[in-house]
Amino acid sequence: MCGRQDGGGGGSSVRSLEARRVPLKRAAMALHSPQYIFGDFSPDEFNQFFVTPRSSVELPPYSGTVLCGTEAADELPDELLETVTLIHKPVSLQPRGLINKGNWCYINATLQALVACPPMYHLMKFIPVYSKAQRPCTSTPMIDSFVRLMNEFTNMPVPPKPRQALGDKIMRDIRPGAAFEPTYIYRLLTVIKSSLSEKGRQEDAEEYLGFILNGLHEEMLNLKKLLSPNNEKLTVSNGPKSHLVNEEEQEEQGEGSEDEWEQVGPRNKTSVTRQADFVQTPITGIFGGHIRSVVYQQSSKESATLQPFFTLQLDIQSDKIRTVQDALESLVARESVQGYTTKTKQEVEISRRVTLEKLPPVLVLHLKRFVYEKTGGCQKLIKNIEYPVDLEISKELLSPGVKNKNFKCHRTYRLFAVVYHHGNSATGGHYTTDVFQIGLNGWLRIDDQTVKVITQYQVVKPTAERTAYLLYYRRVDLL
User: Fold this and answer.
1) Where is the composition biased (Acidic residues) (predicted)?
2) Phi then psi for 185, rounded to 5 degrees?
3) Which of 54, 55, 390, 399 minimizes the number of CB atoms within 10 Å of its CB?
4) CATH number at residue 360
């Protein structure tokens, strides 16, 4: 089960407080300082001080000098992000399982998919590794942790010759490296404030992916602000938080906003387009796409809003949706919007359509299996959704202005990772991941610390015990 961990440690917690005063000082600093520092904690200490509810563990008062003040933090080199070139070349890594002593399967499954993503791996390998002695404190805890994670993996030794049993397809053996426990990754949930660390809530692999990508993006934005302190646009975060645009915010922008312009589309139709200031970081360069949401109202110009995304949310509730292609077509279908009123409180009939404005190099599709009910409950959709290894985004899904600018190779993707949710419940279950391994030229199934070779058919084959939840695709022209 991958429900919420209730924490551990009973009578031994108070006994060890005095003996662990130095790391507890670090813990207090991590929780209360504007900058972050990591101490060395054993898994039991980490559970005791970070997972156990605060009221059950009494932290000693911290009275020492705060070494990680805002001005004292050691930043990454100023020019680092300015010299990043995203590399999409596949790399053959020796797989390693991740030890799960708590309820971290949703994190472990996500980490394995990100390690299998070549541009993500190369980006983190580009950033230098610093020891605690070199950088005792940091303003980029998430970047530091993922640099450390990627450096846990090394190039895979030359695989042995294929073995073949009579009547079987050729299968290669693979020797995984030693499994390890990435406690420094788990620690981020508490060091960086997140609702994911709240006691009693259900963990979700898609929500955790958003936490990671937005967190990395925000840290890189902050580094960019250090490079360009007078650039006001960098104060705007373009982290793809949501696909919905607040109507009140749209009204506040009003006519003539610098983020608004009139655009002439097909058949000389004009539309007013709104767009936030999109500040690029290497993370948006890998995962960031844009959708165009157009509102149609009779006797008015079309109103369009460009919205960024890291994961493309696909509603699969309809009985008509049986494949990923069905879900994509449903995403861009024109729909009526009920209860829309003007500034004068007059109700008007409008419709809305979403199209894809910009496709990212790595496209993550989120099959929305968890449906929230009006009563506050949540149900899981067990239905099977077919998904291809090679996915072509048809021109009909694209915005009118970009349809003819995207060649087929820019719209074709290949699957490289699938995160599954096991179980029938929306409030529990388990997560595993299948990843494509370039050295093996085949697929691996990773369940926490267990790694085994599987066939491509096993990746796309529907089963009752698990359902695909997140599909990770890479653009074929970048393979």
Assistant:
1) 247-262
2) -75, -45
3) 55
4) 3.90.70.10
| Nearest in space to 251 (alpha carbons), one of 348, 334, 344 | 344
What is the pTM assigned to this prediction? 0.76
**164 falls within a domain:** no
For residue range 271-299, list pLDDT tens digits in order. 566 665 678 899 999 999 999 998 888 76
How large is the angle between the packed helices 205-227 and 105-115, nearest 10 degrees?
60
Amino acid at 327: A
In a domain, 43, yes or no: no
Query: Is 241 among the domain residues?
Result: no
- Among candidate residues 122, 366, 422, 430, the one labeled active-site is 430
**What is the Cα–Cα distance from 36 to 141, expressed in whole angstroms?**
7
Catalytic residue among 68, 105, 117, 137: 105
What's the whole-number mean pLDDT along residues 379-385? 88
Best CA proximity match to 353, nearest among 295, 271, 403, 305: 295
SS (H, E, C) the chain: CCCCCCCCCCCHHHHCCCCCHHHHHHHHHHHHCCCECCCCCCHHHHHHHHHCCHHHCCCCCCCCCCCCCCCCCECCCCCCHHHCCCCCCCCCECCEEECCCCCCHHHHHHHHHHHCCHHHHHHHHHCCCCCCCCCCCECCHHHHHHHHHHCCCCECCCCCCCECCCCCCCECCCCCEEEECCHHHHCHHHHCCCHHHCCCCCCCHHHHHHHHHHHHHHHHHHHHHHHCCCCHHHHCCCCCCCCCCCHHHHHHHCCCCCCEEEEECHHHCEEEEEECCCCCCHHHHHHCEEEEEEEEECCCCEEEEEEEECEEEEECCCCCCCEHHHHHHHHCCCEEECCCECCCCCECCEEEEEEEEECCCEEEEEEECEEECCCCCEEECCCCCECCCEEECCHHHECHHHHHHCCHHHCEEEEEEEEEEECCCCCCCEEEEEEEECCCCEEEEEECCEEEEECHHHHHCCCCCEEEEEEEEEEHHHC
Are 447 and 21 a contacting pair, CB within 8 Å? Answer: no
Can you say whether residue 112 is alpha, beta or left, with left for phi > 0 and alpha for psi between -120 and 50 degrees? alpha
Among the listed residues 385, 372, 364, the one whose alpha carbon sits nearest the alpha carbon of residue 320: 385
Q: What is the span of the domain harbouring residue 377?
A: 77-156+176-193+201-221+260-478
User: How does pLDDT run across 14-26, given as a tens digit for each residue?
Assistant: 333 333 333 333 3
Q: Tell me the pLDDT tens digit for each residue of 392-419.
A: 999 999 998 888 777 788 899 999 999 9
Counted domains in the chain: 1
Kindly state whether residue 250 falls inside one of the protein's structural domains: no
Identify whether 2 is a catalytic site residue: no
User: Cβ(10)–Cβ(206) under 8 Å?
Assistant: no
